[in-house]
Write a structure and sequence with these properties.
By secondary structure, the protein is mainly α. The protein contains five helices and no strands. The N and C termini lie far apart (48 Å).
Length: 147
């Protein structure tokens, strides 16, 4: 439960950082690029540890990791062309569900927490795939087709 508390506090600081940046109109291009990277690092490191501990099936973590690498790649190529593709609504819901699921999965591996955590993680995977498609479409619209 200590680990769940630490993860929760780290997630909360990320949320507060975004809230205050928007409230103070201090949103920067660098922040738009780095904030999603911080989100990914937090979630993916937790998922890797949960796979290692037998609490999350490896295929779930692989799908999430693969999506994150693909989206980060699109964003990096877009940035090299001077285009910033920032996170939008569905991606934020995905991150929220992943955060809640990780907290539940860290709390207890053998109870209702695990079942609910895996269910929420499954929904987040579906949202991840939808979100990845949205990034791809925006990439094509703003940068052009992949060649």
């Amino acid at each position: 439960r200590v680990a769940a508390s630490v993860f929760f506090i780290a997630s909360l600081t990320d949320i507060l950082d975004g809230y205050f940046a928007r409230r103070r109109s201090e949103i920067t291009k660098l922040g738009k690029l780095l904030d999603p990277v911080a989100d990914k690092l937090l979630i993916l490191s937790a998922l890797i540890l949960l796979v290692d501990g037998g609490r999350v099936p490896a295929w779930m973590a692989i799908l999430i990791l693969g999506r994150e690498i693909a989206v980060t790649g699109f964003r990096a190529v877009a940035a090299s062309e001077g285009v910033v593709i920032s996170a939008e609504g569905i991606g934020k819901y995905k991150t929220f569900l992943q955060t809640i699921s990780v907290i539940l999965l860290v709390i207890d591996a053998s109870s209702l927490f695990r079942q609910v955590g895996l269910f929420l993680l499954s929904i987040s995977i579906l949202l991840s795939l939808i979100s990845a498609r949205q990034y791809f479409v925006r990439f094509i619209e703003r940068v052009g087709p992949l060649r």
